[in-house]
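From the shared-data thread, chain only:
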Amino acid sequence: MFDKMFSEEAIENFKIALEIMGKGMGGIFATIIIIMIIIMIIAKFSGGKKDKKQQ
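Structure, as tokens:
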């Protein structure tokens, strides 16, 4: 049972799977950063929240 689990082919497949998973997680992280930057830019140009008492 364990001889198939730790064979060269299984280890190589696991490394490939880790690489694909890492790229996916990196893409998600980059997308979150881009969305955060866009929201910060929109908030800066829109003037942020304004209270009704100040108007």
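The helical segments are 2-5, 8-46.
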